[in-house]
Amino acid sequence: MIEARATVIAALRDSNSELDVLARVIRACVGLLPVDGASISVLSGPQERETLYASDVIAMKIENVQFDLGEGPCFEAFATRRPVLVPDLSQASVLAWPVFAAAIAALPIGAIFAFPLQAGAIGIGAIDLYRSRPGWLSADELAVALEVVDVVTAVLLGVLLGEFDGADGLRGVLSPGREQVHQATGMVLAALGISAEEALSRLRGYAFAMGRPLDEVAKDIVNRELSPLELRA
């Protein structure tokens, strides 16, 4: 799993734009796993969804059909906060999204694997992986997928919070301390009912007022040594 994480991070070096970052993340996913394509979306509800990148025409078709119908593995993964693993799409008609399954039945898709992207309490989107032939991911392949999803989440949240600034900014987004900041941001967001941007601003303001590093404050919140309610205005 360490190798998988290192591979994704290496693929992101010298990225020169936010879109380039996400494209490289998706390409790295496809290269690491026995899949033919992938896509990444941000979501806030069934009708609030935006595809940020799709690796190919089939991946984009999967995204478009889900958006048109408001159902599919991406939505299910986001709503349940659990991976949705469909090793044989021909059997998917018995699942919660039969209309979606029927709509893509003619496409060369044998299996779909969808993973939620979340940091703490923040649900920010989902990543869909597909391959042309049916079949499960092995235990090792699933472990790699989950490790890659963690990196994708950190990168995407960093982009959404405006923390991307070339290669140096990307390395900061992927640092262990920064991941705790993202997780703490999610906990503050959930506790106070505010936006991700406002939650991060509250964290920074509290850290400044207390004369403490942001990473330390985030760690205390994640470890439940500091209540998010202490960050109320």
UniProtKB/TrEMBL annotation:
Secretion signal, residue range per the UniProt entry: none
Keywords: Membrane, Transcription, Transcription regulation, Transmembrane, Transmembrane helix
Lineage: Bacteria, Bacillati, Actinomycetota, Actinomycetes, Pseudonocardiales
Protein name, UniProt field: GAF domain-containing protein
Keyword Transcription regulation found: yes
Organism: Lentzea fradiae
This protein's record includes keyword Calcium: no
Transmembrane segments: 97-130
GO molecular-function terms, A-Z: RNA binding
Pfam families, A to Z: ANTAR, GAF_2
Residue span, ANTAR domain: 161-222
InterPro entries listed in its UniProt record: ANTAR, GAF, GAF-like_dom_sf, GAF_ANTAR, WH-like_DNA-bd_sf
